[in-house]
Amino acid sequence: MATDTRGLIAPPAVRVRDLHRSFSESGGVLNGLDLDIAPGEFVALIGRSGTGKSTLLRALAGLDRDVAGYGEIEVPESVSVVFQDSRLLPWRRILDNVVLGVRGPDAAARGQQALSEVGLPGRERSWPFQLSGGEQQRVSLARSLVREPQLLLADEPFGALDALTRIRMHALLRKLCEAHKPAVLLVTHDVDEAVALSDRVIVLDAGVVRADVQVAGRSPVELRSFLLEELEIR
Amino acid sequence: MTITETRPRTATPDVRVVRRRLGPGRRIPYAFWVGPILLLAVWSAGSATGLISPAILTAPWDVVVAFGEQWTDHDLLGNILSSLQRAALGLGFGVATGGVLAVVSGLSRLGESLIDGPIQVKRSVPTLALIPLFIAWFGIGQEMKVVTIALISMVPIYVHTHNGLRGIDGKYAELAETLDIGRGEFVRHVVLPGALPGFLLGMRFAVTSSLLGLVVVEQYNATAGIGHMITLAEQYGQTDVIVVGLVIYGVFGYCADSAVRLVGRRVLAWRRTLED
Predict the structure, then answer these.
(1) What share of chain A in percent tops pLDDT 70?
(2) Edge-to-edge strands, sheet with A68-74
(3) What's the pTM?
(4) Number of other residues whose CB lies within 10 A of the CB of residue B189
């Protein structure tokens, strides 16, 4: 739990209690999950396939209206989602994609600022198909950041990128998160990515939190092997 | 300081592996004109050699003469303008109605249940068979003609726009939901641009069907128009004038279709397809 300068406990940005979600009668995907994320905290969520990572993320994003279940979810006013695919509208130019739905006279200026932040100044007038996969994903990061979200939900955002581009995107995401300080929930299948980026790693198994570890103060090597064990890979 | 040139200036070899092209390849300049000009050449050759007798099809040069006569003596320009006005009015109403109905029925389940069924029923009733009914409702004046053309051109616009709209990838709607945009913005930024390729295809059909409707409605009590001119020529057995009318219809249709395709290439610049 994060504490502010006066030592008081800040209310969490995300609060989930006893969350249940199921796609069929037989078994739940999420089975009574509890989760708190402090404001500005970077949490990585790992787990094997089918353990409910994406289901949890979609529940927090409010994208699971057709999924059966119950439980309590509190999220901030401003939530932004980064998907695995960049999900740029192919028929809108880059800048129009970034500022889609942003109101106010300075929307274009803010969009340009966000594009410079992700290292794509001057590409405002390009079409999405003219950009590489990594560049498109950077645009989608800019689209999220221009909204100044209090919570950033990212569903394997670098899964489709090559290893080299992924490392550069990690550095970019860390820099952006330090500058904008949103609470982050990053869903990933990559243990190294989780360790490199986050303040806290959560391992999900059978729809509940199996392990919840702080990254600070632990050696990456030790943490990595602990997490792999939790994932039952070793 | 000397600059060493690593590449010899002359005879630079360019060795590359080139795959066999499976798409249509690069554009041919003036491709637009090749087909029609070839057709005209075949027609001219046939008439000049006597293979096509004037009783079957008037020679191109005789059509030109008939065109001149119609222009100077029978107000051909007036006929053309009057036909164009009818087609444009009908097409305008038809496109507007078809487009709006497609968006309403595409975006709302209630709209779909109210609109889609009747349109499918309308599709299977030939509009030309409705003309007697329209004459009873609207008389034999301009209204009947414009309504008929509007109905004919509305159907392809509706069908193709609706199809294009429903074909938009659902992930864009999901994205729009996470961006907290309103329905209006969703329609403007996602629905309309996404349905545009379908709409333009519908437009190509609508333009030619509006001309088709023109031919039929102008046989009823028209005092001007290309259809009227053809009906008169039919009564007097003037094949050359009929061919003038047909050529004019053909040119209208071809130009309108090319215009739609040209607009399509411009507004769909965001796509990379075999077209480019």
Answers:
(1) 95
(2) A30-37, A14-22, A68-74
(3) 0.82
(4) 21
Q: Where in chain A is the domain with CATH 3.40.50.300?
A: 1-78+154-234
Residue B7's pLDDT band, with cuts at 50, 70 and 90, is low
Q: Is the predicted pLDDT of residue A3 greater than 70, yes or no?
A: no
Percent of chain A's residues with pLDDT above 90? 52
* Closest Cβ–Cβ partner in A63, A85, A127 for B178: A63
User: Could you give the domains of chain B?
Assistant: 59-267 (1.10.3720.10)
Element spanning A209, H or E:
strand A208-214
**How far is CA B207 from each of CA A165, B98, B148, B151, B157, rounded to the nearest angstrom?**
49, 13, 14, 12, 10
Residue A101 · residue A42 · CB < 8 Å: no
Contacts of A5 (CB under 8 A, 6+ apart): none
Under the banding of pLDDT at 50, 70 and 90, the label for residue A1 is very low
Angle at the Cα of A48 from the Cα atoms of A47 and A49, rounded to 5 degrees: 120
Measured distance CA(B146)–CA(B87) in Å, rounded: 7
For residue B203, the number of C-alpha atoms closer than 13 Å in the C-beta half-sphere is 20
Nearest Cα residue to A230 out of A55, A51, A56:
A51
**Contact assignment for A62 to B185 by CB distance below 8 Å:** no
What is the structure's pLDDT at A2? Answer: 47
CATH of domain A1-78+154-234: 3.40.50.300
| ipTM of the complex, rounded to two decimals | 0.86
Residue type present at position B268: L
Exposure class string for A200-214: b at 16+ Cβ within 10 A, else e: bbbbbbebebbbeee
- State whether residue B266 sits within 8 Å of chain A by CB: no
Q: Tell me the per-residue pLDDT of A59-78, one tens digit each, with 9 for 90 and over.
A: 999 998 888 989 999 999 89
Which chain B residues have a beta carbon less than 8 Å from that of A129?
270-272
Over residues B44-64, mean pLDDT: 88
The highest-confidence range among A19-28, A134-143, A206-215, B122-131, by mean pLDDT, is: A134-143
pLDDT of A119 > 80? The answer is: yes
With an 8 Å Cβ cutoff, is A160 touching chain B? no
Residue of A nearest to B174 (CA): A63
Backbone angles phi, psi at A68, to 5 degrees: -75, 150
3-state secondary structure of A15: strand
Report whether pLDDT(A136) > 50: yes
First to last CA, chain B: 48
Q: Is the separation of the CB atoms in B218 and B226 below 8 Å? A: yes
Using CB atoms within 10 Å of the CB of residue B262, give its burial: 0 to 12 exposed, 13 to 18 middle, 19+ buried: exposed
